Amino acid sequence: MLLEVKNVSRAFGGLRAVDDVSFSVPKNSIKAIIGPNGAGKTTLFNLISGSLRPDSGRVFFNGRQIQGRPPHTIAARGVSRTFQNIKLFHNMTVLENVMVGRHTRSRSGFMAGIFNLPSCWREEREIENRSRGILDMLGVSGLAGMNAGNIAFGSQRIVEFARALALEPELLLLDEPAAGLNMHETAEIAEIIRKIREMGVTILIIEHDMSLIMDISDDIVVLSSGKMIAEGRPSDIQKNPEVIRIYLGEEDAQDQEP
Ligand SMILES: Nc1ncnc2c1ncn2[C@@H]1O[C@H](COP(=O)(O)OP(=O)(O)O)[C@@H](O)[C@H]1O
Ligand SMILES: [Mg+2]
User: 85 in a domain, yes or no?
Assistant: First the structure.
């Protein structure tokens, strides 16, 4: 198992956003987390990546405890993520945005940087080459010199993937990567996710697009009001009465909106 989440809970005031959740993610698999809005999915990602501390429970990555550690430590150990709301630097180029991702892992430190040492330029060039390689692999090398704020929304998602991959993660957390994308762009994202898995990266994905989830995931965890209500293969989850009930409930609620 690459990631093990054991009895993890986190409350905000009286609200149990994540309530005693346990699951594990085998190496090189694609696991999905689904559930209605407010189910606690993003909070769970924040607990894994270190943006939030759990109130209780443990998280193991490669057999080592990571819960409560700062985000940069967890990132350096090989956990990378994308955000539900894209967080690119809009006034930097696409290439620079990807290089920022890579710097989290760079070796020559601050001192080499201020003294402008050759070790630092060599590393800079290496980072640039790797970053260009990642853009190329994702089919967006043509965007390298453009300002990230000026490219299409769907391309921004792909650049976010590139930045997360620049860290050379073992585990990639994707928070609603298809949100706001059309069918064509969603199909492109599905293709990219498969390619990333083929590179040996394990993927944990939160997503509302059911056809995407059913198509790409090996296993699905279902959250509702912070609790895990089901876990299993896509074909079993689709037939699970409890899962059907919460999703139909959500549709009913939407129908009732004016
Ligand atoms: N930082 C926070 N402070 C207070 N409440 C929060 C915070 N983050 C999330 N919540 C609440 O926790 C619940 C779960 O939120 P979230 O994890 O974002 O759900 P999801 O991603 O499944 O839509 C929601 O009710 C949300 O309002
Ligand atoms: Mg969310």
Answer: no
